[in-house]
Amino acid sequence: MKTTMQQRRPVLVTGGDHQGLAAVRCLARHGVPVYVCDHEHCIARYSRHCRGFFKAPPPREDERYAEFLISLGRRPELSGAVLIPDSDEQVYALSKHRDALAEHFLVSVPSWSVIEKVYVKALTYELAGRIGIPAPATWRATDAEEARKMPLPYPVILKPSIRDHYYRETKIKAFKVSGPEEMEGLYRRMRQILPPSEILIQELIPGGPRRLYSAGVFFKDGKVRAGIVGRRSRQHPMDFGHATTFAEVADIPELIRRAEILLSAIGYYGIAEVEFLHDARDEEYKLIEINPRIWGWHLLAIANEVELPWYEYLDLCGQCMPDVPIPASASSLKWVRMVTDLPVALSEWMGGRMRFREWQKSLAGPKRFSVWAADDPLPCLMESLLLPYLYWKRGF
Question: Which among 9, 48, 78, 88 is least buried, having the fewest CB atoms inside 10 angstroms?
Fold first, then answer.
């Protein structure tokens, strides 16, 4: 007998950007009543699949944010709901206050003792080194003068160990540093916001996002239970992107295996995106970061019948998920976020780094758009109207 929506446990997606929207649609189509909360104006609230929207405090105010979620958990329609985040700040807040939230929700995020190992990139790289997972060479300095004097293989990257602490203030994810003088100046600039312990100097792997890959998985009890590999050949901005704009399925099972080793060592549970950059100099796939949540292009996984939010929901509710090939078979299906991919393509074309015909050819064939859906068009319309606001608030 088919389960009705009234019999399903509800879900609260704590973010309504395009990745949250994909989760809302995926779960609702399985008969799950889905609600959304966000601290900003968002597009998922306009989906016909969204049962209700709640305006939240900023998740960076983690105590206030957790108290707000607990107040929602006392509402009859959200009692015992599954919590699914779609940003790092939300993951931080949910992991820090997991015990209190677990009295009202099924929390999909592990405790802070686990999340810390992926939230703090310095800890992620230390762990990778201990277990033999290749990663870019990484250094730290105590001040700008020491950074300038280090015998580094320029150009290198200067980036924060905790992304949100710097990105929130600057909308900058990382810097490319060409020499010692520039290193000293940029280090001093970052030092105005971050302590030295949160500033990383890292080897620059040539090739850019055209060599960027991710293993997107649902992980439990030391095993990848479902997964897919994506090639993320365009992002915004291209050098150090904070958002993928174009992705396609890649047939690289080794990345699923490496993701499994990493997540097992961390003691992880749930959905994760494990990013790797292919280094043509030694033909290695090197770890970049782990995102402990749904991510921008996870709709590509859903479109390839790897419904990660649904599998996590079933598991948290004590139900069996279906058998899924690991990794999912490579397909010709592509994913594109046109509102950011078009500006990226124009920039690359004008800079002589990509031919416009190359961009057009990449979009040929079957694809899924990040927001547009013929049976749920309003979020796409609202995103078009909200573009100035979104560019102002999020820097894309």
Answer: 48
